Amino acid sequence: MLKLDKLTRRFGDNLAVDNANLDIPDGQMVGIIGRSGAGKSTLLRLLNRLIDPSDGQILFGDADIARLKGKELRAWRSDCAMIFQQFNLVGRLDVITNVMTGRLYDLPAWRAMAQVFTPRERAFAIQALDRLGMAHTALQRAETLSGGQQQRVAIARALAQEPKILLADEPIASLDPMNAKIVMDALRSINREDGITVICNLHTLDTARDYCDRIIGMQDGRIVFDGTPDLLTTQMAREIYGAEAHEAFNEAATSTSLGASSAPVRASA
Amino acid sequence: MSIAAISAVSDSQIAAVRAAHPGAFATPAATIRRWAPLAIAIIYIIGSMWYFDFGRLFDSSERVLRLLRSFVVWRDMDTWSYSQIYVGIAQTLAMAFLGTLLGTMGALFVGFLAARNVMPVRVVRQIVRRILDILRGIDQLVWGLVFVRAVGLGPLAGVLAIFVSDLGTLSKLYSEAIENIDRKQVEGVRATGAGQIGIIRYGYIPQVLPVFISQSLYFLESNTRSATILGIVGAGGIGMIIIERFRASLYDQVAFVVLNVLILIFAIDWLSKRVRLWAIGEKHDA
Amino acid sequence: MTYTPMMGGSAGASGGAPDDAVATFERHRIELRATKRVWNILALVIFAICLGLSVWVSRFYPERLADGIPRIFEYFATIMPDLQWDALFAGRTEDGSAVPGSLTYWYTDFWTYLTLIFETVLMAITATLLGTAVAFVLSFPAAANLAPNTWVYIVSRRFLEICRGIPEILLALVFVFMIGIGPLAGVIAIAIHTAGALGKLFSEVNENASSRPIEGITAVGGTWADKMAYAVVPQVAPNFFSYAMLRFEINVRASSIIGFVGAGGIGQELNRVISFYSDDRVLAVLILVVLTVTVIDLMSERIRLGYIGRENFA
Ligand SMILES: Nc1ncnc2c1ncn2[C@@H]1O[C@H](COP(=O)(O)OP(=O)(O)OP(=O)(O)O)[C@@H](O)[C@H]1O
Ligand SMILES: [Mg+2]
User: Fold this and answer.
1) Are residues B47 and B87 in the same domain?
2) Which residue from A85, A103, C38, C152 has the least number of CB within 10 angstroms?
3) C266 touching B, CB under 8 A?
4) Which of B69-73, C64-68, C230-234 is the most confident on average?
5) For residue C72, what is the nearest residue in chain B, using CA coordinates?
6) Pocket test for ligand 1, best of A13, A14, A240 (most atoms within 8 A of CB)
7) Is the residue at B64 inside a domain?
8) CA of A175 to the centre of ligand 2 (A)
9) Banded model confidence at residue C309, pLDDT cuts 50, 70, 90
10) How many of the other CB atoms lie within 10 Å of CB of A136?
11) Residue A264: pLDDT over 80
């Protein structure tokens, strides 16, 4: 169970995340929506401690994540995998090494420096890739892959971490609808089959509705909506998205609702 | 299909994955290929440590201490002939200035001779270029030594050494700048019926002048640095004072002079950055 | 209605006649030219003063130059070998002495030179390897975006600046005093300078490395060293390699002259023949040095291009 208590982050005078309180039970799939600049990325980065909170607590079990340092902080990061909009793979390393970097936390320092991986680690990495249908690219350089393929490798890297929580910051924002669907399906299967909590920033409303058990709406750093998709009224969504509503509802570019969509309610633009 | 934890990956699973993706596993050959460069480098370094007798580095502690002490403890500072030191520094700057100036003037001429689009006679161009290669191939310090033998100790040899090595490098850079110019502007001047000199004056010079100036300024900077050491072979400037006092075991004075030289070098670096910025700015509103 | 191209609508609206704008423009232009002229004259005056001072301080007077130039040509005449065509390829006579006018005579000490050139190249390789290793390690803390904290950053930067700031030959002078005459002093001096020069270049390359992979490795729980090894090194390795090879070329030159202060290599011999003899031996050594430097440059260029080519096609 992940619990945010009065979590706040300031950039100068700008409150990027303002007094966020949340309880996220294990195994939930959570979507965070909001217009650009609402603080979605900042919230996820706070959870993974890529940035430090200005105030408040992040509790996981008994541990206050917000105060962790050094090895404990790295332990948390390895438990709490992160997927990025731009994949953040090491382009010049091959795919399997990229995936095995997910094991870095558990590696003794000398093995990490010498890039010596055991057969078990290699097999595990290949299994993770295989799960995302990417095992055949294992020896290719990551930068030679397409965007969708790179994001799948990034998910395999996250799986290699054996995380308890998976954070995804707009994982499909730079993908075409086909790849976006593959990636979102993968996240859902990881959530359903492995019981890993998935927290996912999404730009488009229908993706959030399609895939998430719970939607959190952010506006100017504050959490303004928190509930199941069917509680999110069109009126509410319009308010969250403000001027971007048109774009968010009419997503042609980054939608996952490709034909097979089981989209429940579609807001009419 | 959820994957098991890494601890639960069984040996048979590993074997199965290895069979399906043999390339993803380390083979002895791949391991050797990966570590070979590092191993060779380490073996080479160990070998050369033996060859160059690195052990001597640790036998010398007594002399090192003596040297370090006299570098730090400065004695009889009122007897140091400061005027000589600062004249030496002024001489260094003067050598750099004159050498760069002469080199630039020479390169203005030779650069055009070595440029393909200005010098149509291939033989002349090739001869000029080979001579420039030789001028560049011999280090400035060697030129210094040679000129000391030819014209005697003192800054004249230093100026000549800077001139000759700059002539080699600047002419090459200038000729490349000339070859890279925009043809259209030259055609424009040619169309007005200008002669060869006129074409060079109005078609080439305006295009290449900024490049020339910035390159010469850059050389002025690097020559001030190299002029400080030309004195080591007797070619004038502060280097001569450094080596004289070093030979006379006046290490505290050497330390003082070197400190001055370092300050000079850092000051020149800073100043030349300023001047270049200013010169480029000037070019913008011209 | 006539169209006045130089004017905006607002100028017309404010009631000003066209002459006004032209006059303003003219006045502005004249002012601009005047200030430019002042600057140019000022620059000229400064230049003349510098020139005068330089000539005076270095006693670079025309008569000295006129005296010197003929002597330069005389000197170059004395170092020319006296080769005779009919004896050019003559070997040694039975008693082991070389025939005057032959190449063997000119290059009597050929094997000594060759040994020294071999030593020179070894010095350059060792100094480049050692210097590159230090530069590699320090380039990460000395990069503004990678340094773990400000202290480490400042200390490593300053250290590299000092290594780079002191000319190699001065360092060599000091090391010759400390550990005696011989190539070791040269190797250490060049290695220190290499560490400084490459460290600066490497850290600049590091500062241009993309932060995305670094963030990726941070997010998996990697240490600082993990981030450097997995996210930065793969990005910068090709650049590091090219810079190190270029430095190697520079170091071959450096190690061929560092012997002037007794720090080993062919420079020691070059210094000896130039200082003590003015005969064809000077040219003999010079030719070998230039040849070595040229050959090394060509080889290093091939390796560099070969490596980069392979990188691009892999
Ligand atoms: N490193 C930073 N320095 C200063 N301000 C920042 C920084 N990161 C984020 N901000 C500010 O915090 C606010 C929230 O930004 P954030 O990136 O979290 O928004 P977002 O909801 O992810 O937007 P988007 O949908 O465009 O990604 C913005 O006003 C942004 O300008
Ligand atoms: Mg964002």
Assistant:
1) no
2) C38
3) no
4) C230-234
5) B150
6) A14
7) no
8) 15
9) low
10) 12
11) no
Query: Taking 50 as the threshold, does the pLDDT of residue A258 lie above it?
Result: no
Residues C144 and C202 occupy one common structural domain: yes
Give the per-residue pLDDT at C212: 93
Pair (B40, B88) in one structural domain: no
- Residue of B87, B91, B97 to mutate when probing chain C, most C C-beta within 10 A: B97
Q: How much is the mean pLDDT over chain B?
A: 83
For chain A, say whether C71 makes contact (Cβ under 8 Å): no
What is the total count of domains within chain A? 1
Please indicate whether, in this complex, the C-beta atoms of A120 and B14 are within 8 angstroms of each other: yes
Indicate whether C190 belongs to any domain: yes
Strand (E) or helix (H) holding A201: strand A197-201
Q: Give me the domain span that covers residue B170.
A: 81-279
Residue C11 has pLDDT above 50, yes or no: no
A142-173 burial, b at 16+ Cβ within 10 Å, e below that, comes to beebebbbbbbbbbbbbbbbbbbbbbbbbbbe
Indicate if B258 and B132 belong to the same structural domain.
Answer: yes
Same structural domain, C193 and C262: yes
Evaluate if residue B272 carries a pLDDT over 80. Answer: no
pTM exceeding the 0.90 threshold for the entire prediction: no
As to burial, measured by CB atoms within 10 angstroms (0-12 exposed, 13-18 middle, 19+ buried), residue B1 is exposed
Last residue of a domain, one of C60, C80, C95: C60
Q: Decide if C135 is inside a domain.
A: yes
Name chain A contacts of C235, Cβ cutoff 8 Å.
90-92
Edge-first strand listing for the sheet containing A55-60: A14-24, A2-11, A55-60, A63-64
Q: Which atom of ligand 1 is nearest to the CA of A218?
A: 21
Given an 8 Å threshold on Cβ–Cβ distance, is A90 in contact with C213? yes
The CATH code of the domain that includes A79 is 3.40.50.300
Both tokens of residue A40?
């979605």
- Asked if C275 and B149 touch (Cβ cutoff 8 Å), the reply is yes
Q: Domains in chain C: how many in total?
A: 2
Kindly state whether residues C55 and C111 are assigned to the same domain: no
Report which protein residue has its CA nearest ligand 1's atom 22.
Answer: A41
* pLDDT value at residue A252: 46
Residue A37 Cα to ligand 2 middle (Å): 7
What kind and span of H or E run contains B19? Answer: helix B11-20
Both B33 and B100 in one domain: the answer is no
Residue C171 lies in a domain: yes
Count of CB atoms within 10 A of residue A10's CB? 14
Residue A14 Cα to ligand 1 midpoint, Å, equals: 9
With a pLDDT cut of 90, the percent of chain A lying above it is: 37
CATH of residue C170's domain is 1.10.3720.10
Interchain CB contact of C159 with A (< 8 Å):
no
Q: Which residues of C touch A78 (CB under 8 A)?
A: 220-221
SS3 content of chain B, % helix, strand, coil (to 5): 85, 0, 15
Nearest atom in ligand 1 to A85's CA: 27
ipTM over 0.90: no
Pick the range with the lowest mean pLDDT from A61-70, A148-157, B112-121, B224-233.
B112-121
Task: Kindly give the pairing relationship between strand A2-11 and strand A55-60.
Answer: antiparallel
Neighbours of chain C (3+ CB pairs under 8 A): A, B
Phi-psi category of residue B75: left, alpha or beta, with phi > 0 → left and psi -120 to 50 → alpha: beta
Question: What is the domain range of residue C10?
Answer: 4-60
Atom of ligand 1 nearest to the CA of A51: 1
- Residue-level pLDDT at A147: 87
- For residue range B211-222, list pLDDT tens digits in order: 788 788 888 888
Q: Are residues C266 and C121 in the same domain?
A: yes
Count of domains observed in chain B: 2
**A163: closest chain B residue by CA:** B5
Are the Cβ atoms of B2 and A193 closer than 8 angstroms? yes
Kindly tell me if the per-residue pLDDT of A267 is higher than 60. Answer: no
